[in-house]
């Protein structure tokens, strides 16, 4: 199965009802309608951002989009996969499996990471994914503004042009894969705060529009206190709805709950292939999105 051509062949019985094809920019509105029907928070702009950095597959039945799956390639060895959706009235007909197979065929020998809900975990396990961790989704309206003091000599400042390459390298260590194009886009669209320690950039966090309000992520920091300091600064520069997706074992969930951002969901980090070295131990404290990683 390949995405080189516009259409992707299915088995004869399924082909009569559903066809798979490449995800095109003109499909964004239909994809947004699918995610909205599931009460996912994505705006059309969030879909456009995701597609502009990756590629995907559409499942179509009778001219109507009934399923989606996207992927993002990083470096030569890794990819992430997400926004796997099947219309509720067509679930149980193996459309999700076909979408996944089509995307995985395109990714060939790459190691693939995704974040799975409990409902999707069984499908991904059958496709060779194993669970390697857990992400806690925190969101809501802050009850209090965090008051966090940094170490002596720590300085928070805006992003400068001279910081960009160092922060991209920092993110690559925390994410376990190089994501230069993604980071440059985030820096251009969001508000980035940089932690300077000992005269050197030591961490950063990005605050951006997403979903129902704003989201914080990625967050790269040398330690727990630095991660809290960066997130706290982002909290002080937004009002209304805020979302942060963090490693469930990082210690950040308890702190976020104390601010009035409850944990509303959790997803499993799953990998097919080599597991990347990533997460708090490597400086990565918060995701960009559950889909992109």
Walk me through the structure.
- It is globular and about 65 Å long.
- The protein is built from nine helices and 14 strands.
- The protein is α+β, with helices and mostly antiparallel strands and 293 residues long.
- Helices cover 30% and strands 34% of the residues.
- Strands 1, 2, 3, 4, 5, 6, 7, 8, 9, 10, 11, 12, 13 and 14 form a 14-stranded mixed β-sheet that branches.
What would a concise description of this structure say?
With about 290 residues, this protein is an alpha+beta fold. It has helices at about 10-15, 30-35, 45-55, 95-105, 120-125, 165-175, 180-190, 225-235, 250-260; strands at about 5-10, 20, 55-60, 65-75, 80-85, 110-115, 130-140, 155-160, 190-195, 200-210, 215-220, 240-245, 265-270, 285.
Tag the structure with descriptive keywords:
alpha+beta; Aminopeptidase; 2 domains; 9 helices; 293 residues; disordered N terminus; 14 strands
Radius of gyration: 19 Å
Estimate the global geometry from the Cα principal axes.
globular
Report, as a whole number of angstroms, the end-to-end distance.
Answer: 25 Å
Beta-strand portion reads 25-35%
Domain count, please report it.
Answer: 2
Helix amount, in percent? 25-40%
Structural class: alpha+beta
Query: What's the total count of β strands?
Result: 14
Q: Please state the second-level CATH architecture of the largest domain.
A: 3-Layer(aba) Sandwich
**Main β-sheet description:** 14 strands, mixed
Are there runs of 5+ residues with pLDDT below 50, and where? 1-12
Q: Helix count, per DSSP?
A: 9
Averaged pLDDT: 92
- Name the helix and strand elements from N-terminus to C-terminus, one letter apiece: EHEHHEEEHEHEEHHEEEHEHEE
CATH topology of the largest domain: Aminopeptidase
Query: Would you state the CATH class of the largest domain?
Result: Alpha Beta
